[in-house]
Design brief:
The termini are far apart. Strand 18 (538-539) and strand 19 form a beta hairpin. The chain is 45% helix and 16% strand. The longest helix has 30 residues, at 314-343. It has 854 residues and is α/β, with parallel strands linked by helices.
Length: 854
């Protein structure tokens, strides 16, 4: 075994430096132990510090970049360092360090006080000089290694020339939008799985293929010529693998570009309703909340924040940065999982790419450089992100400019983890605006002020998402699934948003604005006429009355529903009691809410849906098991039967409210003051078991009987409606979920959301079957899904045999007016014609026929 070299610096002028050439440790652990033994033999550390170095490696990868690793001990074990020192193992053959990363220089650090700051500054500059690092891997001179680690030289400047590695492949970029983050992250992932060096050259610019930011900084556009080269262990296989990855993405990138072109062409086509005459730039999405609005665009972004510079020891700062990066990585993985489930893997790729951005060694190295220069960790991180993002923005490529925005966005996530006080909020302009965002959580949407946000457009989401539902509740015109192009719109751009058709028209002409204002005025006049009549019942011209209620989640919303013409509450979603707080509401908390609802309604009907959790509604504090496909998993009644700790307190609270507020001689059926319904029923045994549990709790409390119903949300329940009706008092059809399950379309999937139309003939036939099955046992049928609030959809439902409709309160006047203008015989004929159509578009075309009198 080679003996360590003498000191190259005295303890008074710097750390002791120990070098071992041509080391060949068996693995990472052996390398750390060997370096620790050098430090221990030289008297720099207690032997126990070696174990601390291994422990550090278990919680934090110490690979710094470009073949350099810096193993060191835990902060709490610094007392085991007797004298500052460095132990350097030169490993010419390389050693795998972490996930394919190959280490050639192992620089073990034992630091007292702040001596490690100087060491890290030198290392971060050294790893930017690839030529020198290459020499150090094979040099026979210990002094050369010592010099590299003891001199304070500036980072090398680019020479402007670039040489390819030994094996090469020439390729012309054929991605229509160039090399953006998602394909680049795939290149990086592939390259990192290869031990050989891989680089990409465009002209005189070279990037490490294992470095995402470096790749993006090449600014590759469609048609650019590049040379991809490899050298080192198994270089031929590495080149073949990276070339397969690069070319294998071409078809998908071209298909994505074609989809975008198709969407643009579709956006330019006419729609039913208002259309501009002067052909402004149009972005198409899906209408989520009706209405036409005009105003400036505001793209939702985090507000600018001032990051204080609070220096701290590098070891503690590095620990905080590591924890922040790890926590953000967890966040991004969770977002990617959720997005992949809702929207598909392609859309989830952006979060994977963001994960690569914050894992980039150049970015982390730059942050470390700023820390070793004396800056605080939050300041250093923010400055590093801004510098890298500025370099991307300066390339003049709009795709890369968007990646700069991604880097800043994910950088803010990390910043909030470093210091929660730096968590940024969202600022809105002083004037009313059309708000644009990637997506909004239901709680974010619920907090919007309709006086300041006059329209909403999201890049993601679906028309039946809770965000869309809440936008309709607030009366804010909204479109969803507009695509990432929305986020590139400049703030203050004048726009017209049509939430009915899902179109955003940018920079419209004065004539188009005047036309839109006239259309809006006409629609407002019609809405005002309907509002004046909203207290009248929904009774057809030939005397058939449809019960009409509002979808309401808490007692505070009841007055608005009643003012809009609701005759009661047809759906109370109790999951909001769980979603809007960080813990499970107690039985008493729930009792208070249900009692307040009954008091606010003063004897009018209230239908309460028991806890409906699962699918797209997850409650973190319930710690439910993760499911590969939650929409087909344990949700609704399935969850309640498996979690009596959730179901029984809720039922006790409901029956306590019934005992205190429902008279024994209260009416039954549609007029009952309180009814309970169970979600996601798929079988008769579920209904029987749930009735048994309800009856047991009712008897224990001494409450009066209340109607017990079930949600019809899956085809199995609709097909067996006659059997189900024997064991329950009413049905309520959830058309959003019924559509999803009948058509096998995730209602959150942006690509498929336009096809998830509840007026599809297959869905209408299932509703008809449900009504027929209920009629055989004299049960009433309600609908609380999205199409109940669509005037044409409401007419079809009435014609199919639905007895009660419940909807967003703001939809009530229009639905009631449309039903009052109809004859029941005509609606039945219309519904039968709709069931005979071949697709949803043909069904919707019937609305035009009716409207024109044809």
């Amino acid at each position: 075994m080679l003996a360590p070299t003498p000191n190259f610096s005295s303890p008074r002028t710097g750390p002791r430096l120990l070098v071992r050439l041509n080391a060949a440790p068996a693995d990472k652990e052996a390398a750390i132990r060997e370096a620790a033994s050098l430090l221990s033999a030289a008297g720099c550390i207690d032997a126990a510090y070696g174990a601390s170095m291994l422990k550090r490696e278990g919680v934090s990868n110490t690979y710094l970049g470009h073949g350099v690793v810096i193993p060191h001990g835990m902060v709490d074990d610094r007392h085991l360092v007797r004298e500052s020192g460095l132990a350097v193992l030169q490993v010419p053959g390389g050693i795998e360090w972490h996930d394919g990363q190959m280490a050639h220089l192992v620089v073990a650090i034992a630091a007292q006080s702040d001596t490690h700051i100087t060491v890290l500054r030198r290392l971060t500059r050294l790893i930017q000089d690839e030529g020198r690092l290459e020499r150090l891997r094979s040099t026979a001179s210990e002094a050369e290694i010592a010099k590299a680690l003891t001199e304070d030289s500036a980072a090398p400047a680019s020479t402007g020339t670039a040489n390819d590695l030994r094996q090469r492949f020439d390729w012309t970029v054929d991605y229509p939008t160039g090399l953006h983050a998602r394909p680049a992250s795939h290149w990086v992932e592939t390259a990192r799985g290869c031990p050989a060096r891989i680089q990409v050259r465009h002209g005189g610019e070279v990037a490490d293929a294992k470095n995402l930011i470096a790749l993006l900084q090449l600014g590759l556009r469609c048609g650019d010529e590049v040379t991809i080269s490899a050298e080192g262990d198994d270089e031929a296989a590495a080149l073949a693998k990276i070339c397969a990855a690069v070319t294998g993405l071409s078809a998908g990138e071209k298909a994505a570009a074609q989809r975008a072109a198709d969407a643009a062409a579709k956006a330019a086509g006419p729609v039913a309703g208002w259309n501009p005459a002067d052909k402004p730039r149009t972005m198409a999405g899906i209408g989520a909340s009706p209405g036409l609005t005009i105003g400036p665009v505001h793209v939702l972004a985090a507000a600018d924040i001032v990051v204080p510079d609070q220096p701290e020891p590098l070891t503690s700062g590095a620990d905080r940065l590591h924890r922040a990066l790890a926590a953000t990585g967890d966040q991004l993985r969770a977002l990617a999982d959720d997005t992949a489930r809702r929207l598909g893997k392609a859309d989830a790729g952006i979060f994977k790419a963001q994960g690569e951005l914050i894992a980039d060694t150049d970015l982390i190295t730059l942050a470390c450089q700023l820390m070793v220069e004396g800056h605080g960790v939050a300041f250093a991180w923010n400055a590093a992100v801004e510098r890298m993002a500025g370099q991307l923005s300066a390339l003049g490529n709009p795709v890369l400019a968007a990646r700069a925005a991604d880097l800043r966005d994910v950088g803010r996530r990390v910043l909030a983890q470093i210091d929660p006080a730096l968590k940024s909020g969202h600022d809105l302009p002083d004037v009313p605006c059309i708000l644009i965002a990637p997506d909004l959580a239901p709680s974010d949407t619920a907090g919007l002020d309709p006086a300041r946000v006059i329209g909403l457009a999201t890049a993601q989401g679906g028309p039946t998402s809770h965000t869309a539902i809440l936008a309709r509740t607030l009366g804010i015109p909204a479109m969803v699934a507009g695509g990432p192009g929305l986020l590139a719109i400049e703030n203050h751009t004048r726009a017209i948003l049509d939430g009915t058709t899902g179109r955003l028209y940018l920079d419209p002409s004065a004539a188009d604005i005047a036309s839109a204002e006239a259309w809006r005025a006409k629609q407002r006049e019609q809405a005002e006429a309907e509002a004046r009549e909203r207290a009248k019942p929904a009774e057809t011209r030939d005397g058939h009355r449809i019960a009409v209620g509002g979808n309401v989640n808490n007692p505070d919303q009841v007055p608005l529903a009643l003012d809009q013409g609701a005759e009661g509450v047809g759906l109370m979603r109790t999951e909001f009691l769980f979603l809007e707080r960080g813990d499970t509401p107690s039985e008493d908390d729930q009792y208070a809410t249900y009692s307040a609802m009954l008091t606010a309604l003063a004897g009018r009907p209230l239908i309460v849906r028991t806890l409906d959790i699962g699918g797209d509604k997850q409650v973190a504090h319930l710690h439910l098991p993760k499911e590969e496909n939650p929409f087909l998993g344990v949700r609704g009644a399935r969850l309640l039967l498996r979690r009596p700790d959730l179901m029984e307190p809720q039922l006790r609270a409901l029956y306590r409210a019934a005992k205190d507020h429902v008279p024994a001689d209260a009416p039954k059926g549609k007029e009952a003051p309180l009814s309970i319904m169970m979600p996601m029923i798929t079988s008769v045994p579920e209904v029987i078991r749930l009735r048994e549990i309800c009856e047991q709790i009712r008897n224990e409390i001494g409450a009066p009987e209340v109607p017990l119903g079930i949600m019809i949300e899956v085809p199995a329940a609709a097909i067996q409606a006659d059997a189900m009706a024997r064991h329950c008092d009413f049905f309520s059809i959830g058309t959003n979920d019924l559509t999803q399950y009948a058509l096998a379309i995730d209602r959150q999937n942006t690509d498929l959301a336009p096809e998830a139309d509840s007026l599809h003939p297959a869905v209408l036939r299932l509703i008809h079957m449900t009504c027929e099955g209920a009629a055989r046992h004299n049960r009433f049928v309600g609908v609380c899904g999205g199409i109940a609030g669509d005037p044409f959809g409401a007419c079809l439902l009435a014609g199919l045999g639905v007895d009660e409709l419940s909807m967003t309160p703001r939809d009530l006047p229009g639905v009631k007016a449309r039903l009052r203008a109809s004859d029941m015989a005509e609606l039945k004929a219309l519904a039968l014609r709709a069931c005979e159509q071949e697709d949803a578009a043909s069904v919707r075309a019937l609305d035009t026929t009716v409207a024109t009198g044809a």
